[in-house]
Amino acid sequence: MALDEIVITRAIMDRYHEKFKNSLEADVAIVGGGPSGLVAGYFLARAGKKVVLFERKLSIGGGMWGGGMMYNEIVVQKPAVHILEEFGVRTAVYEADYLTADAVEATGLIVGGAVRAGLTIFNCMTVEDVVMRPERMEGLVLNWSPVEMAGLHIDPLTMRSKFVVDATGHDTEVVQVVERKFPGKLNTPTGRIEGEKSMWADQAEKLTLDNSREVYPGLYVAGMAANAVAGGPRMGPIFGGMLLSGEKVARELIERLGG
Ligand code: 48F
């Protein structure tokens, strides 16, 4: 059999467009493919919700591949280990409550597990804005990341979702748009983004979980974005809080979406 380049091209284009068209309306849209967004997407998909994740970069996994300072091992505290186990990630006890995992194994298996559970992921897409309705957000405004990188003046496209999760990490990009463009205040002490504070691993890990919640009607925050919005400290390469944050946001959204 002779392989035909045109069939290969058509196959890619048809399948991609099917996938994209099928993702234009979803229960939940997640922005950012780091650990918190991926774990939220996994649990939502496993519960049968229609969930789509958009990631600016070519690679999915955010800040987890490189462990700490490119030493590609991560630390996870005991209360979060069940999430790594859910994805089949191997862990090793280092000291009492501190476990470690290979960062590449952990990231790879979480990405694969989330996709297998039904999460649809689009990489190389940047969320540049959100869809606004009176006092609520209802979706995302998307463009190809290379359009953004090249500074091309090309209009974006749109998708609609019942809820949005900002899992964009330290930059908390979706909440920034809402703070700038929406009426009313964020659900924070000042009504604005409080801003990430300096390193304090113990506090940060605890606060990440409290801070993972709805900050504007229809908009949840997860992971480092949750701490940045609420004014929590950073924690460095301990990842339990990120994983638990994704799990918590998924649990709340599953309930909001009717079980
Ligand atoms: O930063 P990131 O890994 O987010 P996270 O889930 O985890 C944080 C940890 O990696 C680490 C830490 C914890 O120990 O402090 O930093 O909170 O992943 C965020 C992803 O969002 C993407 C970005 O490329 C990254 O992969 N992203 C950011 N802004 C956008 C975006 C955007 N506007 N559109 C699409 N993707």
Characteristic terms for this protein:
259 residues, alpha/beta, eight-stranded mixed β-sheet, three-stranded antiparallel β-sheet, 11 strands, 39% helix, binds ligand 48F
Protein model, in words:
The protein is an alpha/beta fold. Helix content is 39%, strand content 24%. It has 9 helices and 11 strands. Strands 1, 2, 6, 7, 8, 9, 10 and 11 form an 8-stranded mixed beta sheet that branches. Helix 2 packs parallel to helix 9 and helix 7 (201-211) packs across helix 8. It binds ligand 48F.
List the helices and strands and how they pair.
Elements lengths: L4 H17 L3 E7 L3 H12 L4 E4 L18 E5 L3 H6 L5 E4 L2 E5 H15 L2 E3 L2 E9 L2 E9 H6 L6 E10 L6 H9 L19 H11 L2 E3 L2 E3 L2 H7 L9 H17 L3
Helix pairs in contact: 2-4, 2-9, 7-8, 7-9
The structure holds ligand 48F.
Ligand 48F binds next to helix 2, strand 7 and helix 8.
Assembly classification = single chain
Q: Biggest sheet: strands, sense, closure?
A: 8 strands, mixed
Overall SS class:
alpha/beta
Rounded to the nearest angstrom, the distance between the terminal CA atoms is 49 Å
Number of strands: 11
Note the overall shape: globular
Mean pLDDT figure: 97
Low-confidence stretches: none
**Share of residues in helices:** 25-40%
User: What is the element string, with H for helices and E for strands?
Assistant: HEHEEHEEHEEEHEHHEEHH
Bound molecules: ligand 48F
Number of distinct helices? 9
Share in β-strands: 15-25%
From the alpha carbons, calculate the radius of gyration and give it in angstroms.
18 Å
